[in-house]
Amino acid sequence: MIKREIEHLDYLEQGELEKIHQAALTILEKNGVEFHSQEARDILQKHGAKVEGEKVFFPPPVVMDMVGKAPAEFTLHARNPEKTVTIGGNCTVHAPGYGSPYVMDYANNTRRNATYEDYVAFTKLAGNSKYIDVVGGVLVEPNDIADRLRHAKMFQAAVKHTDKCLMGSAMGGQKAMESIEMAAIVFGGMDTVKKNPALISLINTNSPLQFDPRMLDALMVYARHNQPLIIAALAMTGTTSPVTLAGSLVQQCAEILSGIVLAQMVNPGTPVVFGSASSIVDLRSGNLAIGSPESVKMFSVIAQLARFYGVPSRGGGSLTDAMIPDSQSGFESMMVLMNSVLSGTNFILHSVGLLENYMTMSYEKFIADDEMLGMVKSFTERFPVSDESLALEALLRVGSGGNFIADMHTYEHMKEMRIPQISSRQSFAGATDLKNTPQRAHEYSNRVLSEYQSPELDENIEAELDQYVAALG
Amino acid sequence: MIKREIEHLDYLEQGELEKIHQAALTILEKNGVEFHSQEARDILQKHGAKVEGEKVFFPPPVVMDMVGKAPAEFTLHARNPEKTVTIGGNCTVHAPGYGSPYVMDYANNTRRNATYEDYVAFTKLAGNSKYIDVVGGVLVEPNDIADRLRHAKMFQAAVKHTDKCLMGSAMGGQKAMESIEMAAIVFGGMDTVKKNPALISLINTNSPLQFDPRMLDALMVYARHNQPLIIAALAMTGTTSPVTLAGSLVQQCAEILSGIVLAQMVNPGTPVVFGSASSIVDLRSGNLAIGSPESVKMFSVIAQLARFYGVPSRGGGSLTDAMIPDSQSGFESMMVLMNSVLSGTNFILHSVGLLENYMTMSYEKFIADDEMLGMVKSFTERFPVSDESLALEALLRVGSGGNFIADMHTYEHMKEMRIPQISSRQSFAGATDLKNTPQRAHEYSNRVLSEYQSPELDENIEAELDQYVAALG
After folding, report:
1. CATH class of this structure's domain A2-12+67-380
2. Which terminus of chain A is more exposed, N or C, with fewer CB under 10 A?
């Protein structure tokens, strides 16, 4: 977990932010949001929203009152207490890529369908990472597992192979409930899970200005059980949202707020995250452009809006539009990641592995992105400015034209520097290895997978979990 | 030129910054700096510094008094007035890679000696760039030109093939004077050049705490003619500076301040830039690690120190330790560039092209880095938040579940988005081109070079310049 020690970036001026806020309130009041669930509409109506057909209209005081009930930060518990994280404040928590149906076939420069074997492998890479905090999400779609079982098999793999924080399924109320029941097995009962939230789940809006029934059912189940929810807009400018960034942010803000309002009505104080995976669309091709500076601006403002509402934020990731792990993949991913962290984003999904916007996971990029997480973390950690580190004595001792290599100050402080995991610092003169970064990452990934040791898991818990999953089908 | 519209990042707290400042003053007073030039020492002594042998000791009031004479920002004139730039304030000016002896041979995955032909080619690429502001520096070392003529041939190529701002030679007093004389030919006489500075030059310190005679002679010539000077420390932590970042910053600050003091003593008000090209050293290999987060932290603090002293700053670039233009090259370069711009760095040398720290220029990376400059520029330009861009009417018109693609608001505002130069936004489904970024950059570079039209240059000026260069040897 990154604990940012440097100030965050506020992209917009306060007055501009408030304009977006006011416009979002206007949309919530005048256009409303379609909630495709009778149960959700009943709850919304009962607490002061106006319902007409599938549409729900929100009086501004109801919105602000409900959003005010959400906590500014919260704790997400891992089965290994050392890996429990804080979501909010100056913390940034990382989760791997989420939801891609494909995996990069690096040797053949193409993509193939993702499988459960990939899912387990990426889980192990995430378990091995020093920087990934949350696993158990849809790291890749295990296309070879029946839909009815996918969420359970993914959860089982995450618990068996890591002891990090977990995500729950958002694919409807039943799978959400089953996710909670499995968490209860791992964490010692339903009461413990309710008291110490153990599952964070991703609820996407259906832009523009709708929620589908599956997501709403999951939202309500998790909220009732006090499990954290990322409410995230997934708008595409010029198609499912206005083409202007300001207009797209207004819409996203309205969608996210309406989801947060529902969660708070179900259970006041439900931990929520104000999130976005929105992107501009390249209107020449119709493709997403998630590695674009415009998309980064939106992520930055999403983090700022979340601070305005007093809730944690989600956005960004190591995002790129490149199909292969080349230099574009590197520079786009770093731009999005760096700015998301500097903007104070609290939860970064898609922190490692994605290529071709959200479509393809790559073993090679997973490892390269993990290196980036270490670099960005290091940048946000300030260095000591003390009598000792200012090195006045060493400077006077070595003096003009001297060399610090043999000075004791160097020996005492050389550990201040970060050692890269896979990056090269060789030069052509004396280079022993001209492999490129994906080649080095490929080898690193293979090595991790062949040597990986899953953390210990109580035998009874493992057996009970296996039994639960087996009983599903 | 980037005119940053978002706030800058202050990496250190004010108290920490002042500790570095105070320690630097202590070093200047107690250890002093070696100035390997009798003329420089005489000037320093005459204005209140204490001289013992080659060493010069600076009383703090003398330092602060002299630094106070330097302008907070200044104008650097181009022969095309539209390309004149401001150095200081919220502006960031870009110059290409500087000084590499090698060029990447992309086809053979190796490096070769740079030639004058490369120099001219890189000058044309810089001329073509929408983001490069300054040319005429040592884009690459033209190893096939006699040392006596290099500065003149480089200047000549820069003037013939671009109409952008220019750099002068720092290789001793004579070459500095010749650079000024050539500028006088181009800009209409020595008086004009003195009044409207037309050459910016790079004076490196010789760490730790020394200046060599060649750099000092150039510094004094330029200062006398009121030409802007970047005074830059080039320290390597653990070898030519303390291994701690704080200690290395103290030393750099002392070195840079002493150079600025000399420039102000020669000619009060000489435009100067507080600069650094310093880096940590990877102590396992002894190689520089300029793509490291620690080096970025130093660049960020250099910009902050410059603001503290009220002068423009130089640091950063698209820097990497990768030998080839792969994903490491991309993510390291973006990290350094992005943070340099966000930290408010005013002059960014090495903005495009470098690989293998400062050793190798690459046509392919030049083009990829130029793309990055456009992305970073776009990120620093805020988007409109107006009634029109907030899109309330469009949102109410399209409503829940609609599509914005056919709405008039989309047609009216779609130009808000930046179109990439070489980056791909294709997807595997329907991809027509699986080339990687260096391949696309290679083709782009070849196309620019074959189609490049040099801007018009007055025939008389061209003839006079040719004559001047021919007369040198």
Report:
1. alpha beta
2. C
